[in-house]
Amino acid sequence: MTQRPTLIVFVDGRTVARVTPPAEIAPRAWRLGVVAVQVAATGGAVSAVVRANETGRAEPAVVQLPPRARVDVALAVPGRPAPALPRLPELARPALSLSVDGVPAGRAALDAPADGRAFGHVYCRWLRAGGSECGCDLTRLQPWRQGVKHPRVASRPVRPPAVVTYQIALPG
User: Fold this and answer.
1) Mean pLDDT over residues 63-79, rounded?
2) Are the beta carbons of 70 and 11 closer than 8 angstroms?
3) 92 vs 169: CA distance, rounded Å
4) CB contact at 8 A, 134 and 125
5) Is this prediction's pTM over 0.85?
6) In terms of Cα–Cα distance, which of 139, 72, 77 is closest to 102?
7) Which of 51, 71, 79, 102 has the fewest CB atoms within 10 Å, i.e. the most exposed one?
């Protein structure tokens, strides 16, 4: 059986959360672990948080992010060393950026934030039959509408072990 990865969340190099696959997947065919980086703009104020949890379980771990932050999510495979966090240059302009294993994958500008949200997800669908389906995405800053799937700037599968990085530079 293929091993299921754990999502290890780092903020500026410090471990802040772990989302571990459950021992039992049944009765469903899969369970989902998610790490969400969320940027919210309201009335000119812009803030960012990271949330991490297994859906349908306890309250998520929530960490308020500083105006300039880096969130790394290591998809660690049991029995293997956790992947090293990549070196990346800092963002020069206000943005939320996405990289996978140090390779840029998308960027959402935050230069002139209107009210709305931008977000990125790292997710891992742990399969009852064994193994997993993991990936990441990123949206641009846009008005938030409940129940609407917002267009992605980037969306791609991720094969563990890997590191997905979101860099945040808020305006101001």
Assistant:
1) 97
2) yes
3) 8
4) yes
5) yes
6) 72
7) 79
- Diameter of the chain measured on Cα atoms: 50
Q: Cα dihedral angle (83, 30, 26, 162), rounded to 10 degrees?
A: 0
How far is the CA of 81 from the CAs of 6, 45, 76, 90, 98, in angstroms? 12, 40, 7, 26, 23
Higher pLDDT, 113 or 144: 144
Return d(Cα 48, Cα 66) in angstroms, integer.
7
